[in-house]
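F.,

This is the one I mentioned.
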């Protein structure tokens, strides 16, 4: 699943037809509990699930799966050049780093020529609206162009959560600066069957403003 809208890879085929995934080496970046890697393994791919969070990987280990789990920084991937055919990231890593170009260059390095990297992030336009599912989430409350990171701190003033805002143009320039060719930009529409509300996600907002941006990139 690429996004809260419910866009499924079986339907979208952003990594390619499922039957073509068999035998492919795939890196999932910001894997969390490795849901994507688990699905990829079921298609016959050879995934590796990478995340900075040891706790998230503990969840992945508890759930289980026939693939390696790697605790590492997405900006310093511990793999040799040209190790993977594909890479993917569903809301992982890229929104949480100050230098996304560094991550993109690392992903390009570990991909083989012609390799594809697909990643999804919160659609940049959402930055201008309150993170509310109801009508209060439909009124612009901040500048879309304000790139000040969102930071949550603990009682001692240490950052415990940081999310960086990039405009849509920033993301496109990052992809190009990372050495990729952008082949598709997908903005999933909210489907009629999805009646769920979660955080700032809801049918009300989803039918009016995009919530997710999915970048499909290739290494020439």
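My design for it:
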């Amino acid at each position: 699943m690429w996004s809260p809208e419910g866009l499924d890879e079986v339907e979208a085929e952003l990594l390619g037809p499922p039957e073509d995934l068999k035998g492919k080496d795939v890196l999932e970046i910001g894997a969390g509990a490795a849901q994507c890697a688990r699905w990829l393994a079921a298609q016959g791919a050879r995934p590796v699930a990478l995340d900075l969070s040891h706790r998230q990987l503990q969840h992945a280990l508890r759930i289980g799966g026939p693939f390696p789990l790697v605790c590492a920084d997405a900006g310093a991937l511990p793999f040799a050049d040209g190790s993977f055919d594909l890479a993917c990231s569903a809301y992982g890593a890229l929104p949480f780093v100050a230098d996304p170009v560094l991550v993109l260059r690392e992903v390009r390095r570990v991909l083989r020529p012609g390799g594809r990297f697909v990643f999804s992030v919160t659609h940049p336009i959402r930055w201008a609206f309150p993170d509310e599912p109801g009508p209060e989430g439909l009124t612009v409350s901040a500048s879309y162009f304000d790139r000040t990171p969102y930071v949550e701190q603990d009682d001692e003033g240490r950052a415990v959560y940081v999310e960086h805002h990039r405009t849509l143009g920033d993301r496109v320039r990052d992809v190009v600066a990372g050495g990729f060719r952008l082949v598709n930009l997908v903005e999933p529409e909210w489907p009629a069957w999805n009646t769920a509300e979660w955080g700032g996600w809801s049918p009300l907002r989803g039918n009016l403003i995009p919530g997710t941006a999915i970048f499909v990139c290739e290494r020439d």
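The radius of gyration is 17 Å.

Talk soon.
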